[in-house]
Amino acid sequence: MTLTCIAVDDEPLALGLVCAFIEKTPFLRLTGRYSSAVEALQGLMAGPVDVIFLDIQMPDLTGLELARVLERNNRGAYTTRIIFTTAFDQFALDGFRVDALDYLLKPFNYEEFLRGASKARQYFELVHRPESMPAAIAPAAPTEMSDDYLFLRVEYQLVRIAYSDILYMEGLKDYVKVFRQSDPEKPLLSLTSLKALEEKLPTSQFMRVHRSFIVALGQIKAVTRNSVEIGSATIPVSDQYKDVFSQFISRWL
């Protein structure tokens, strides 16, 4: 698979380096180079591309502002993905929020560039492989579901997680932590909401027991009136969910 790409950077040396890296990579094809986001937006009107290697700090229109414009346009059938190239690491969270595939911190070498480009290739291979994913991945959505697993957006990639591997999920302010049986000490962190996951997870396998927790029913080791025990964790059951939880407990009696 060959991906069409453009590079956008207001620094000539940085723009030249990214273009050289693109031309060096067999599965990438450079179709445009722009010194401003405004020029890139005009160029994209002639036709979409697969990947944009995009600087963030630029005059007139920043890379983040261009990304938000493209995010709105991406709601159609065609999807353009972004890999940010910037000297400022404080924009990493903003890049995550506009659904960037990767975030390359300047100065980066070809190995780091290739790692980001490979994420793009893996993404588009998933999109064009219907037998792996019954529906195309929608970039505005944090997860995609199947009968026995979900794809969860973690950092700048989609991670496939089997339902059977999930212990429980903890909702934070803007994120969800997913604790897994395979690596309970290292939860996956995704920019999504617990409510969004609750609406998509199968109710036969998962239950929300607290405003901050969803548990995998098959992983519960013990229950009390006010808590469930999963692995080494004790998860509280709040009053809001006690009626549904009590119905579940009745199956144990």
Describe the fold and architecture.
This protein is an alpha/beta fold. It is built from seven helices and 16 strands. A five-stranded parallel beta sheet has the order 2-1-3-4-5. Strands 11-10-9-13-12 form a five-stranded antiparallel beta sheet. A hairpin with a 2-residue loop joins strand 15 and strand 16. It starts with a strand and ends with a helix. The model is unreliable at 130-146 (pLDDT under 50).
Record keyword descriptors for this entry.
single chain, 7 helices, alpha/beta, 5-stranded antiparallel β-sheet
List the helices and strands and how they pair.
Layout: E1 3-8, H1 12-24, E2 28-34, H2 37-44, E3 51-54, H3 63-73, E4 81-86, H4 92-97, E5 102-105, H5 110-127, E6 143-145, E7 149-154, E8 157-162, E9 166-171, E10 176-180, E11 188-190, H6 194-200, E12 206-210, E13 213-216, E14 220-223, E15 227-230, E16 233-236, H7 242-250
Parallel strand pairs: 1-2, 1-3, 3-4, 4-5
Antiparallel strand pairs: 6-7, 7-8, 9-10, 9-13, 10-11, 12-13, 14-15, 15-16
